[in-house]
């Protein structure tokens, strides 16, 4: 089994730009990436690849192998799957609430494919036992797409139901979940910049 | 064990007012309530109470006992807990993605209390084995509050990690989750009014 984390530091997380500067966002994604790698390591996954269109921000990466592919996310990942000769866990880099227990749960599925839904129809992680029989299509409502692709390819699948693994950090409101439910450097970074405030039923962010 | 569902139909779900009229919101919350009651029944919970400040919309309720209490949510629930002589599951009425399997999982906790976090710091369900030793405080960041209350009361607790049980339907974006992950009358109601459209990374709603 091996894991692959698609990653792009340059101009990352533009939807956080209302609350974080470009420099802050680039620092923050690096912290999130480190936490995801750490969770994978803790779960016992030894082969970890970071797949990026550029080496920017990955110069000092020692905990994972860096694969550069300038193609878009789907093309790059599908090439990766084609060439893989073992089960593949695709995990997004913006999941600081993903723990090693989640990873163990996802990769111990009895099914051919395990799909971890993210907020707003996304796919946060995807474990594929037979990578030559599966192709990904991220963007849009990729969760439903990934379910359909599995069925069309004759691969049965499990949906992994987790609030924490399901929380990808894209929007300012997602930072609230990180502050409430998270730990580690990514959370520390955000708690140095914001405090929580209650408004309109749900908790929001206030700059410090 | 018994379950209690706080419920208020009149003027319900004001944060959905950008996309649903008052009449629609009141119809919709009734459908969500029915689904929650059905999931509780399917999980084998025989005593189900609906706790409401008014009888409006509950005139024909046959599947649950209706308890009227004009006090605010916290006071009414705490009175309910004080008088309870068995474990209590408090479950919100806006959880159409909550299944009977979730309910079985929550109520089979080995701990004294099981807390199901909702989006934005909320508490979607709360299972309390010793109701005389626990008091609730909803609103605001109630998830963290409910964890602290358990600890202060000497009750150990489990956090139940579920994307689906964690999705309370309050904002238009939550309807997207219902359309993607849901089933039953509440989902049908919404799919008759909206379709999904991809924008800015996550899927959004478009009126039909």
Automatic annotation (TrEMBL), chains A, B:
Statement: the UniProt record of this protein carries the keyword Plastid: no
Annotated GO biological process: F420-0 metabolic process
Protein name: 2-phospho-L-lactate guanylyltransferase
Family: Belongs to the CofC family.
NCBIfam families: F420_cofC
Pfam family for this entry, one: CofC
Gene Ontology MF: a single term: phospholactate guanylyltransferase activity
Keyword Ligase carried by entry: no
Entry keywords, A to Z: GTP-binding, Nucleotide-binding, Nucleotidyltransferase, Transferase
Function of the protein: Guanylyltransferase that catalyzes the activation of (2S)-2-phospholactate (2-PL) as (2S)-lactyl-2-diphospho-5'-guanosine, via the condensation of 2-PL with GTP. It is involved in the biosynthesis of coenzyme F420, a hydride carrier cofactor.
Catalytic activity: (2S)-2-phospholactate + GTP + H(+) = (2S)-lactyl-2-diphospho-5'-guanosine + diphosphate
Superkingdom to which the source organism belongs: Archaea
Signal sequence residues: none
Origin species: Methanosarcina lacustris Z-7289
This enzyme's EC code(s): 2.7.7.68
